[in-house]
Every structure is written in structure tokens, then in C-alpha cells.
Amino acid sequence: EDQVTQSPEALRLQEGESSSLNCSYTVSGLRGLFWYRQDPGKGPEFLFTLYSAGEEKEKERLKATLTKKESFLHITAPKPEDSATYLCAVQAGTGFQKLVFGTGTRLLVSP
Amino acid sequence: DSGVTQTPKHLITATGQRVTLRCSPRSGDLSVYWYQQSLDQGLQFLIHYYNGEERAKGNILERFSAQQFPDLHSELNLSSLELGDSALYFCASSVEGSTGANVLTFGAGSRLTVL
Questions:
Q1: Contacts of B92 in chain A (CB under 8 A)
Q2: Is B4 in the A-facing interface, judged by CB distances under 8 Å?
Q3: Backbone angle region of A64, left / alpha / beta, with phi > 0 → left and psi within -120 to 50 → alpha
Q4: Are A46 and B103 in contact (CB under 8 A)?
Q5: CB contact under 8 A, A101 and B43
Q6: Is residue A32 less than 8 Å (CB to CB) from chain B?
Q7: Given CB atoms, is B82 within the 8 Å cutoff of chain A?
Q8: A51 neighbourhood in chain B, CB within 8 Å
Q9: Is A59 on the interface with B (CB under 8 A)?
Q10: Are residues A19 and A108 in contact, defined by beta-carbon separation less than 8 angstroms?
Q11: Which of A31-35, A95-99, B37-41, B95-99 has the lowest mean pLDDT?
């Protein structure tokens, strides 16, 4: 069964303090690994899709990387507006295309 | 605005009751997915419809049912509600791709509170 484990569960950073979030996964035939951002009471917002080991993608202060077993979301010099829950999900290479989500990392960036 | 519309935004009801949650996908998207998000479990896949046909079922209870209509909007029906059904229910839509990963676009969710 496809599984996604995210760590840490919660992370508190000072503004400007860089860090990384981890997403470990097991999946039978990875079609894609996704990162979403979710603000309280709102729906997940798409950030990145990574398809193969070695791939990297960047958006503003966020950079996502992928290996065969895990993905990292690096946050460089975060700002308070980066505070949110970051969700990792995998999509398997089977017929249907659901996403299997991890439970997320709650990030709080203090000024 | 993601383009995926969910109604109602909030719903409070009593145990044993039945409710219907509605979702309109983004224009052009044929796939609709329903997810449940509770505090202790994260996003759990319930069911997937593509162009009116059920494609996959996840952890959906027998008390729950869904359908996708010819105009592609979808409804999730929850019956004999229990306290534990209180959660955020999200709908997501996507363009079904034959190859490669497809991005799911989520709505803002319907918050169900069962008292």
C-alpha cells in the first residue's frame, strides 16, 4: 500500500531561519510526487510536482527535491506569510490517479 | 479562487441526519475526487469520478455515496450521520491525463459539524 510520512509534525522558525521539511514515501511505481500548501480552513494549494529522482523545482523561497525514497522542501529565509501546513502526496503509476497524502508539517514563522 | 466550487461552506446538523455536499469542478476538468480531512487523520481519499463514471473508491463508508452528473458537477451524500463524521470535506478536480502525473485542484471545502 502506498504510504507517505512527513516530518517533523510541526516546525517553528524565526523569520530568515532556513530549514527543510521531509517527506518519505513508499509507492508502487511513482507517477509523481506533489507538494501542497494549506492555510487554516482552506483547501490545499498546489506548489510543485516532481517526477523522477534528482529533479528539483523552485518557487520564490521554496525548493523541492526528490530522491528514490524521499523528498525535501527547503525553505530559505522564510517570512511570516510562509506559515502554513505543507502537505506531501504521491501518485502511483496505476490506473486511477488519486493522491495519497501525508499528514503534513505545520510551519510557523515568527517575525 | 481555485475554480473548484463547493457548497455549503459550513453545515451543522444532528446525529442521524442526512446531508448533501455539492462540487462544481474547474471548467474543462472531467475528474472529480472527494477527500475527507479530520484533525487526527489528514486527507483521506473517498471516491473518484471521471466523466460521470465511478473510477475508484477509497475509505468511503457505506453510509456515504456520491455521483457525478452529466454537467460534471458532483454530490457527496452522507447519511445516518455520526459525531465522528465531523470533518472538512474537499472536492478536487483534474484534467485526466493518459500519461504523467496530473495535478488535483482543490476547492475551499465544506466543514461539517455533527452535534
A1: 43
A2: yes
A3: beta
A4: yes
A5: yes
A6: yes
A7: no
A8: 100-101
A9: no
A10: no
A11: B95-99
Q: Among A38, A49, A97, which would you mutate to test the B interface (most chain B Cβ atoms within 10 Å of its Cβ)?
A: A97
Closest CA to B91 of B17, B16, B8: B8
CA distance A78 to B82: 41
Secondary structure (3-state) at A77: coil
Of the listed ranges A71-75, A88-92, B4-8, the least confidently predicted one is: A88-92
Dump pLDDT digits (tens) for B98-107: 556 788 999 9
pLDDT at B59: 84
For chains A and B, what is the number of CB pairs under 8 angstroms?
67
Return all residues near A60 (Cβ < 8 A) that are at least 6 apart: none
Look at residue A57 and give its three-state secondary structure: strand
Tell me the mean pLDDT in the region A46-71. Answer: 95
Grid coordinates representing B14?
444532528
Closest chain A residue to the Cα of B98, Cα to Cα: A95
DSSP per-residue string spanning chain B: --S-EEE-SEEEE-TT--EEEEEEPPTT--EEEEEEEETTTEEEEEEEEETTEEEEE-S--TTEEEEE-TTS-EEEEE-S--GGG-EEEEEEEEPPPSSS----EE---EEEEE-
Please give the average per-residue pLDDT across B36-55, as a whole number.
Answer: 91
Q: Are A62 and A74 in contact (CB under 8 A)?
A: yes
